[in-house]
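Figure 6 in text form: structure in, sequence out.
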């Protein structure tokens, strides 16, 4: 029987690992998005995870990428438990869960369902979006802290690490951008600028305004999708809840808004 203290440590480790799994489109932890319905350590030290996306028809590609991230998180646990992951209420849930129950690996299940789809290439596409979103937050935070563009673009890693950023989002994204930068450009060393495009081109003052405009468009799109996902997840199993008597965007998307009285069809007398 597992002691209470040991269970508590392992439960904390489990949630920490799961929090490192990001929604690939939104670059936000699946735990923050509410996609992990249950993560439990059983008495035999095995782990059960139930995973639920905001809608029944969420892109299966996103589901596969996130579930593969959950697999990696569980396999990284220090006590190397047996584990069971179930996808709930998704159009491919039966196929995924049946394959896993049959002892197939995630790779086998995904391969059978995706055919020729290159999940590695898809994952790389979303890594690029995450890199850019984190980079924009850091650049804006440095500007907000009073640094000029020339000083920002001249930063190498030691200078970047020592610099304080302004703004909650920038502070949160600073270590995440550093991680993404070194994963993408591991050759960067002392003296090399830390602000460069995904392709590796160092940013210059002349290109910064246009570049930030592109990053802003990307962020707005990601923030909209994130807000929509949260709304869909929150209302999926509830009745429509209006704010100040008015329906929200989610209510319209879910077709939960009754017709206005003035638009009701005429009734023949």
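Output sequence:
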């Amino acid at each position: 029987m597992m002691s209470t203290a040991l269970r508590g440590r392992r439960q904390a480790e489990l949630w920490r690992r799961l929090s490192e799994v990001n929604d690939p489109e939104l670059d936000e932890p699946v735990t923050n998005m509410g996609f992990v319905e249950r993560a439990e350590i059983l008495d035999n030290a095995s782990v059960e995870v139930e995973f639920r996306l905001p809608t029944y028809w969420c892109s299966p590609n996103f589901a596969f990428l996130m579930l593969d991230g959950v697999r990696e998180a569980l396999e990284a646990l220090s006590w190397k438990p047996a584990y069971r992951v179930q996808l709930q209420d998704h159009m491919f849930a039966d196929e995924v869960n049946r394959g896993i129950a049959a002892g197939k690996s995630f790779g086998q299940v995904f391969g059978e369902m995706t055919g020729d789809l290159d999940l590695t290439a898809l994952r790389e596409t979303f890594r690029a979006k995450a890199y850019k979103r984190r980079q924009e937050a850091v650049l804006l935070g440095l500007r907000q802290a009073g640094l000029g563009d020339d000083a920002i673009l001249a930063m190498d890693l030691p200078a970047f690490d020592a610099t304080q950023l302004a703004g909650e989002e920038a502070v949160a994204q600073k270590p995440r951008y550093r991680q993404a930068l070194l994963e993408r450009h591991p050759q960067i060393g002392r003296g090399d600028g830390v602000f460069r495009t995904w392709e590796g081109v160092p940013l210059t003052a002349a290109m910064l305004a246009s570049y930030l405009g592109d990053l802003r468009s990307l962020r707005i799109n990601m923030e909209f999708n994130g807000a929509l996902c949260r709304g869909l997840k929150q209302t999926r199993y509830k009745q429509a809840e209006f704010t100040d008597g008015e329906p929200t965007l989610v209510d319209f998307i879910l077709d939960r808004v009754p017709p206005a009285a003035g638009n009701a069809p005429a009734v023949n007398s």
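Caption detail: The chain is about 50% helix and 10% strand.
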